[in-house]
Amino acid sequence: xxxxxxxxxxxxxxxxxxxxxxxxxxxxxxxxxxxxxxxxxxxxxxxxxxxxxxxxxxxxxxxxxxxxxxxxxxxxxxxxxxxxxxxxxxxxxxxxxxxxxxxxxxxxxxxxxxxxxxxxxxxxxxxxxxxxxxxxxxxxxxxxxxxxxxxxxxxxxxxxxxxxxxxxxxxxxxxxxxxxxxxxxxxxxxxxxxxxxxxxxxxxxxxxxxxxxxxxxxxxxxxxxxxxxxxxxxxxxxxxxxxxxxxxxxxxxxxxxxxxxxxxxxxxxxxxxxxxxxxxxxxxxxxxxxxxxxxxxxxxxxxxxxxxxxxxxxxxxxxxxxxxxxxxxxxxxxxxxxxxxxxxxxxxxxxxxxxxxxxxxxxxxxxxxxxxxxxxxxxxxxxxxxxxxxxxxxxxxxxxxxxxxxxxxxxxxxxxxxxxxxxxxxxxxxxxxxxxxxxxxxxxxxxxxxxxxxxxxxxxxxxxxxxxxxxxxxxxxxxxxxxxxxxxxxxxxxxxxxxxxxxxxxxxxxxxxxxxxxxxxxxxxxxxxxxxxxxxxxxxxxxxxxxxxxxxxxxxxxxxxxxxxxxxxxxxxxxxxxxxxxxxxxxxxxxxxxxxxxxxxxxxxxxxxxxxxxxxxxxxxxxxxxxxxxxxxxxxxxxxxxxxxxxxxxxxxxxxxxxxxxxxxxxxxxxxxxxx
Length: 676
Ligand code: ADP
Ligand code: MG
Hints:
Elements: H1 15-23, H2 29-33, E1 39-42, E2 55-70, E3 76-84, E4 87-94, H3 99-102, E5 108-118, E6 121-131, E7 142-145, H4 154-167, H5 176-182, H6 187-195, H7 200-231, H8 241-250, H9 257-271, E8 277-282, H10 288-301, E9 305-309, H11 313-328, E10 336-339, H12 345-356, E11 362-365, E12 379-385, H13 392-401, E13 407-412, H14 418-424, E14 429-433, E15 444-448, H15 453-465, E16 469-473, H16 487-498, E17 504-507, H17 513-524, E18 530-533, E19 546-552, H18 559-566, E20 577-581, H19 590-597, H20 601-612, H21 614-617, H22 636-651, H23 660-671
The chain binds adenosine-5'-diphosphate and magnesium ion (MG).
């Protein structure tokens, strides 16, 4: 049996069982053995018959005196006597007529079940029963519990898993020197121990080995990417002191130290001769745009074009506006071009020409910017807003558009904890803008129960009367089975009842692009007092006059996401508030409480990572393939040793060709991009 064989190659797995496994995304032998148990139940305490008390018991016994009969109520019963040297106990099975044939005389069995009084006598009823000599998986051990699916029970999965584990020896995936150096179990042993551990300690060793391998693969992939990226021939963009100074002097504020430092790192990257691949992390409002403009100006002055990519049209529009204002300060505004999907064919044609002949130098748009129709004259820098990772595939496509590898600058307001950044984004250089521009007031945050909703909205009305605007955010567009509030229902309620005298707009992801734009523009233009929206407003949208946010169903969001959402308010000079409304009346979690006191996005993200895993930090950031199944991202020691090992692997000039399975995994990881 080979790893890539279909699971129907496993004895006892027919088409119908295989179809059920498919629902668990298990198609091959490899998929099967990679299926990680959710937890383990400890049945390893084997008792002597003389010790048993009512309750769950596991015994090691011989079974004899097997008789089948019908009870007075017509139930089929199989009765037997189980004995060890200390005594004898009765076993009873109901409606399992095959039992009598399957029990062998004079063989040692493990028997697990509930010892209890049954009618007139004590017995173990419907026990699980496995031959000691036959590698038991349901009794007398740490028993693995898997995620199940309809028609595929725990015992069946264990049975198939056992057959696979005993008849298939996976090839070693890691180099021997690495196993020795890190004191790791061989792969085959680790898989066997993960499914059917000999002991808790063996289980721990197995998890260590498998977790190490996951992080090793990820970091090896990103190190290799980083290397090949650095080996690309890249265009050089010299630092232009005169223009930089002119621009900085034109700003109505002083750059913060962090902004300066990040800008400086970017200038160094761009002039280094190898392509920049830098991620700038900074909380909402920390001033990333100015830094991006500094980079863009440098590139334009050196004669290159800049592509500025935003995740939504809405943001592209806003960026175009604020970039226009900033560029005007140094007379570069004519070189700006907005290119979006909602433009007419004619407008697009004009835009394509301006990009192609180089009249436009800074082109703002969504990732439609990289369609085949868009041909750059001389692309030198790509700025990506709110996209964490710019994958290899896309870079390759871009390389075809540019003669030399362009520089890439990514920006995000999602605070990515260090361990996560190192593992998932190891191929990028990361800079952090930690300090906020002076004078920013933190958003006052308060948790509310649904019962007080009416009072809350009355309070919010007062703010509207004062001329403020309000965001109301809702996790879902439509009502779900649980009857939780949807954005539509809230909009309905607010506009008909509590906010009857105000203008209330609705914005969600299922609306057409031009509808969304119209609503957003109306809100920005103060034609609307209230905007009821899903998280489409999450990234980047800037409405300085909006200083109240109500988040309905706040407990449905991750902390980092809530923090990002509330960053939408408090962009002006007024103090601002954010109300977190729970789904149900009751005590809020300690997790949610943190938002009331903590204003640092990184602290919140670290906390979420610890508590809920990487998926919680930013739903869309997680690429299925990047999900770690065994390793914990909070296991800093494991992560740093796996990273060191990956670097060592490269320094040793080890060839991946020697390790075909590792190569396959790493190759796949290298191509993953978030932009698809
Ligand atoms: P983000 O990092 O969320 O993209 P922006 O770049 O949109 O933040 O900046 C938010 C606001 O802060 C903008 O109005 C910008 O002009 C202002 N800003 C940026 N840097 C500074 C600074 N050093 N001092 C004061 N205000 C600044
Ligand atoms: Mg921004």
